[in-house]
Design a protein that fits this description.
With 141 residues, the chain is mostly beta strands. It is built from no helices and eleven strands.
Length: 141
């Protein structure tokens, strides 16, 4: 999923093992993740996607300060989804802290370690020989 402010930007889902880079997307003031190969396309993640950053994570408020989280791993999620017209995409860190994706400093690299398990509706199973109703044949003599 991508934040509401990126709905007008081309996007695609994340893939396990790919390296992403934090960037500001052209025509927006929103930061997010993009592929190194295609920086104009937002890479969207489902909540629970696990990331490994190449360095401790840095974030800022765009004007005054930059801070560093003493962690290189995090899990993508959503915060305050009930609050409209604000950024919800965030990275949660092992200590329970989180940072909005749009606050991540540009140029940081992260590898997608694992995608979340999603429940898929199973196809209606075809009966096997063991579960089929027995058939009988009548012979008339």
């Amino acid at each position: 999923m991508c934040d509401y402010s990126l709905h007008a930007v081309a996007s695609r889902p994340a893939e396990v093992g790919e390296t992403l880079v934090t960037t500001t997307f052209r025509g927006t003031s929103t930061r997010g993740f993009a592929s190194e190969r295609d920086p104009g396309v937002a890479v969207c993640m489902l909540p629970g996607t696990e990331l490994a950053f190449t360095e401790n994570v840095k974030y800022d408020n765009r004007w005054i300060w930059t801070k560093t989280i003493n962690s290189r791993v995090g899990k993508f999620g959503k915060i305050d989804p009930q609050v409209r017209d604000r950024h919800h995409d965030a990275i949660e860190f092992p200590d329970g802290s989180y940072v909005l994706v749009t606050q991540l400093c540009e140029g940081q690299r992260a590898t997608v370690l694992q995608l979340p398990v999603t429940n898929r509706v199973a196809d209606k199973a075809q009966p096997t020989a063991e579960t089929r109703a027995p058939t009988t044949s009548l012979s008339v003599d």
